[in-house]
Automatic annotation (TrEMBL):
Record SUPFAM superfamilies: EF-hand (SSF47473), Mitochondrial carrier (SSF103506)
Organism: Rotaria magnacalcarata
Residue ranges of Solcar repeats: 346-437, 445-529, 537-625
GO cellular component, one term: mitochondrial inner membrane
Superkingdom: Eukaryota
Disordered: annotated segments: 687-714
Main location: mitochondrion
Domain (EF-hand): residue spans on this chain: 92-127
GO MF annotations, alphabetized: calcium ion binding; L-aspartate transmembrane transporter activity; L-glutamate transmembrane transporter activity
Name recorded for this polypeptide: EF-hand domain-containing protein
Subunit structure: Homodimer (via N-terminus).
Family per similarity comment: Belongs to the mitochondrial carrier (TC 2.A.29) family.
GO biological process: malate-aspartate shuttle
Subcellular location(s) of the protein: Mitochondrion inner membrane
Length: 714
């Protein structure tokens, strides 16, 4: 229980993993031993475990710098203690700064010297293109006249931010050839795209010149003054502060039920409460949003205003930083733990409703295949007079159309739809409910839990499945005898009675429990393998995941389905009668052999696979479309990075690792590496010498340097 007066949410920590799990993962990758202690090399940690820096042509300086992140003792041996320490660092509240500090602390002394600072800065892309003056007052003030000061972690955090500004100012001074405090618009664009690219959104990068024309009041055309230069950079660094100003105005306007669209005057008034925000910065901000609104409208926009969604477009990659992801994970974990009973009931009811719709869509799509499957399974080795024999499923399909018409393929569909809605709904709802309860704190779920969730879902559906199946089957086989009148569904129900509707229930359990225990885990894993590099599943991948998962589930459960069909079909004169599950198995085997248990297997797989493909596709798309938040776990694979909003580089930096060996904080490794450049602008060359296989000698971002899958060229 949280202390009195304290928000319990604030005490919620990032879901951690236990030491035994970390040790098990470490032992799988630690192939060496020294003095009885297992270890892996920094290269093995980066390349084999994290999957970064693949190849033999890696720049040795880069490898050395990045290896020092985890090799605290600097002996090229990563032990379990260092491995665990790095995992803890990744979930620390100040992980970005601590990771950057370890980059500079090359000797593991717990402090940084001038030589350390110079070594790392000199290895960056920015230094190679815009050399930093290490004889400047900046260096003397921070490291002393003789450069002998040792910088602690807390001091380093401030120096790093000051360095970003100092490097940019030095570049401005070098490009100010006239010493009048101006640089050209072209040079301004170069500085932004080379030194501050990590702070530029795709929209601002594309429209820099238009934005400058709207906001700059310089008397010289195409010239950028130093005050405008610094205001622009400060705006890029403080987009989140601007967002807070917007929220503050909205909170005041909410009391009067005013529009959430904020005018420039309203924004300026509130900005006075934020001391580091200037009217010039706000001029630039509204020039950006004005350009954005003009692009959307396709014409000139006279009124200057800003909306909340504008910040998502003009901010760079703040949403990709690890503390944002960590906060999202903590928030989701907290909401799941504290989801109320009422919300759980509402969520289950909501899923039940969507499952009903999805089940009806899936059943209708494949019903003709289901009818063919049923008739093939009911066909005996000896026929009676008037019963049509089918050579195979295709022959059955043709004869149904020839003798009963196209609508004959949909005989029994109405009771099927009446029953399939609650049947599929309860199956999907129970599976989701049990999976949510058995999912671990880090968002993973053990295989045994997936199988249990599927099995319970299969068992729960029999309440609806059995009455549905027996009525449907008797209607489907009614057309096999031409001389017999075809009964209505109501007549079949009256004839069977309540007890008769559950005839063959044990066989139904025997089929549905293993089917769902196989299907749902298979679907979850195939779906994950089909997800893109962001972990997102598009509709095509959802359909094929459901389709492929249905093949083994339907095929392996065919014998139970054959027995269930024989028990539920009303035996005609001359046909064998069965007295229960065991008796049916024995008689079918004695009279028809093992092959009889696999009758209709092809049709069953052909029906069940696409049916569940359509059903799960519909179910997931409905959840995404309505997107109702019941404070529970989000649907896996549903989070999508809008390709129109973010650049290919942003889309390539997806963040939470899906590797099952990346336990605990290692889920955030990619986000943290990306954050070093996003927040501090540190990027290093990847290869020693560009080869013919390399598309460009330009230096990649740190995420790309580390080998994260990307859609843009290095």
């Amino acid at each position: 229980m949280a202390p009195k007066g304290k928000d319990p949410k604030k005490t919620t920590q990032f879901p951690s993993t236990n030491h035994d799990e970390i040790l098990a993962v470490f032992n799988r990758y630690a192939r060496h031993e020294h003095l009885g202690q297992r270890y892996m090399t920094p290269a093995e940690f980066l390349q084999d475990y994290l999957g970064y820096l693949k190849g033999d042509n890696i720049d040795p300086t880069t490898l050395n710098i990045l290896g020092s992140l985890v090799d605290l003792n600097k002996n090229y041996r990563i032990t379990i203690d260092e491995f665990t320490n790095f995992e803890s660092l990744l979930v620390a509240s100040d992980s970005l700064y601590r990771l950057a500090f370890q980059l500079f602390d090359r000797h593991g002394q717990g402090f940084i010297t001038f030589d350390d600072f110079q070594y790392v800065i000199s290895a960056t892309k920015q230094f190679k293109e815009f050399p930093f003056n290490f004889d400047s007052n900046f260096v003397r003030m921070h490291f002393g006249e003789k450069r002998q000061r040792q910088i602690t972690y807390k001091e380093f955090t401030q120096i790093l931010l000051d360095f970003i500004d100092e490097q940019t100012i030095q570049t401005f001074c070098k490009l100010d050839n006239t010493n009048l405090g101006y640089i050209s618009l072209k040079n301004f664009e170069t500085i932004l795209k080379e030194l501050r690219q990590y702070q530029l959104s795709e929209f601002i990068s594309t429209h820099i010149q238009d934005i400058v024309k709207l906001s700059s009041s310089a008397t010289l055309p195409n010239q950028i003054s130093y005050p405008y230069f610094t205001a622009f950079l400060q705006l890029l660094s403080n987009i989140e502060s601007m967002r807070k100003i917007y929220v503050a105005v909205c909170e005041k306007k909410a009391r009067t039920f005013s529009s959430s669209t904020i005018t420039k005057e309203e924004f300026l008034t509130e900005a006075q409460h934020f001391p580091h925000t200037t009217p010039l910065q706000i001029d630039i901000l509204f020039a950006i949003t004005n350009q954005l609104h003009q692009n959307i409208a396709g014409k000139e926009v006279k009124n200057e205003y800003i909306e909340f969604n504008d910040f998502d477009t003009i901010s760079a990659k703040e949403h990709l930083l690890p503390y944002r992801l960590r906060s999202e994970i903590i928030d989701e974990h907290y909401k799941i733990e504290h989801q109320t009973i009422v919300m759980k009931i509402l969520e289950s009811g909501y899923r039940f409703g969507l499952g009903s719709i999805a089940g009806a869509v899936g059943a209708t799509a494949v019903y003709p295949i289901d009818l063919v499957k049923t008739r093939m399974q009911n066909q005996r080795t000896t026929s009676i007079v008037g019963e049509r024999l089918y050579r195979n499923s295709i022959d059955c399909f043709k004869k149904v159309i020839r003798h009963e018409g196209v609508f004959g393929l949909y005989r029994g569909l109405i009771p099927q739809l009446v029953g399939v809605a609650p049947e599929k709904a309860i199956k999907l709802t129970v599976n989701d409910f049990v999976r949510d309860r058995l999912t671990l704190a880090d968002g993973t779920i053990p295989l045994w839990a997936e199988i249990m969730a599927g099995g319970l879902a299969g068992a729960s559906q029999v309440t609806f499945t059995n009455p549905l199946e027996i009525v449907k089957i008797r209607l489907q086989v009614a057309g096999e005898i031409q001389s017999v009148r075809r009964p209505a569904a109501s007549e079949v129900v009256r004839e069977l009675g309540i007890r008769g509707l559950y005839k063959g229930a044990r066989a139904c359990f025997l089929r549905d429990i293993p089917f769902s225990a196989i299907y749902f885990p298979a679907y979850a894993h195939v779906k994950k393998s089909f997800a893109d590099e962001h972990g997102y599943n598009d509709p095509k991948s959802l359909f094929f995941s459901g389709l492929l998962a249905g093949i083994p589930a339907a095929g392996l459960c065919t014998p139970a389905d054959v027995v269930k069909t024989r028990l539920q079909v009303q035996a005609r004169k001359g046909q064998t009668k069965y007295n229960g599950l065991t008796d049916a198995f024995k008689k079918i085997y004695i009279e028809e052999g093992w092959t009889a248990f696999w009758k209709g297997a092809g049709a069953r797989m052909l029906r069940s696979s696409p049916q569940f493909g359509v059903t799960l596709l519909t179910y997931e798309l409905l959840q995404r479309s309505f997107n109702v938040d019941f404070q529970g776990r989000k649907l896996e694979g549903s989070k999508h990075i809008d390709q129109a909003q973010y650049s290919p580089k942003s889309r390539a930096s997806i963040l939470l690792s899906s590797n099952p060996d990346h336990v605990g904080g290692f889920h955030l490794a990619q986000a943290t590496f990306e954050g070093i450049e996003t927040r501090f602008g540190l990027a290093f060359p990847k290869y020693k010498n560009p080869t013919s296989n390399e598309p460009s000698p330009s230096v990649p971002s740190l995420t790309k340097l580390l080998g994260v899958t990307s859609q843009v060229n290095t």
